[in-house]
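Course assignment 3, question 2. Fill in each field.
Student: A.L.
Task: Predict the tertiary structure for the chain below.
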Amino acid sequence: MFKENLDQFLDPADFGLVVTWDGNDYEGIFDNTTVAADINGVVQVDSQQPLLLVKEIDFKEAAQGDVVHVKDVNLNLDADYTITAMAPDGTGLVQLALNEI
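Answer field:
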């Protein structure tokens, strides 16, 4: 666990954005990564995998199937997502895999 203030890493004034979950606003970093999948060595398919990095303590009660709302004017983003997976990284942050609703 980092001793640093994690809010500095997630600040909307820099790389972060505001995320709403369970009626509360939190800060996080959104990424819509392209993931390549190889199907039997014959076909490669690229798909988007939205990911959200947030403080683990803020989302300790979150679960797969919960809905988060992500909004950012700079990314032209205003959408609801379902949490499909949660991966704590051991630093106090957790990466949420998302599926747009």
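Instructor remarks: The mean pLDDT is 89. The helical segments are 7-10.
Grade: pending
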